[in-house]
Structure formats: C-alpha cells, structure tokens
Write a structure and sequence with these properties.
The protein is 46% helix and 23% strand. It has five helices and four strands, in the order βααββααβα.
Length: 92
C-alpha cells in the first residue's frame, strides 16, 4: 500500500496555533495520535506518514480547517541497484 507524507501548516501566531490544535482535537484523531509538530521550535507545521490507498484518502486525514494548505507527498524507496540503473540511464 502506498505511503504518504502529510504536511499541514498554520500561521505562526498564537491564535493560529490555538485554532489548529482545536480543529485537530475535534476532528483529527490521527493527527492527535501520530503527527509530529514543529511549533515549539517555531516551525508551525505537523507531519504524519500514513499508509492509505491513495492521495485523496491521505488528504482526508487532515482536519478540514487545515486541508487547503496541506501537502501530500507519495513516498518511495529505491534499492542501490535501482539508483545505479537510474544514474546509468541519466548519463546515457
């Protein structure tokens, strides 16, 4: 199943943090339980990696109030052999 990095940000003012946390507590069980946040370090973003069937489902994990500004990135890994083959193809 595909894995997605879900990134949800909010403004760096106190009330924006408060609104984001409020929406997460009310509607974002996955974000409460599993997200990592950078707010204490001044980076007002939360990150979550989820295994879900598709990008749309990954976006639905984010509470509606944060969904518009979120970014969803499909993650993948390569083996060393795959990287070597890609490099060879790029070099022609």
């Amino acid at each position: 199943m595909p894995r997605y990095l879900i990134e949800a940000s909010h403004d760096d003012e106190y009330h924006a943090c408060q609104r984001a946390l409020d929406s997460i507590v009310k509607r974002g069980a996955h974000f409460v339980e599993y997200a990592e946040w950078g707010c204490k370090d001044g980076v007002h973003t939360g990150w979550l990696i989820a295994e879900v069937p598709d990008r749309k489902m990954a976006r639905m994990i984010v509470p509606p109030e944060l969904r518009d500004g979120c970014r969803v990135v499909e993650l993948n890994r390569w083996t060393r052999d795959e990287v070597v083959a890609m490099l060879a193809a790029l070099r022609g």
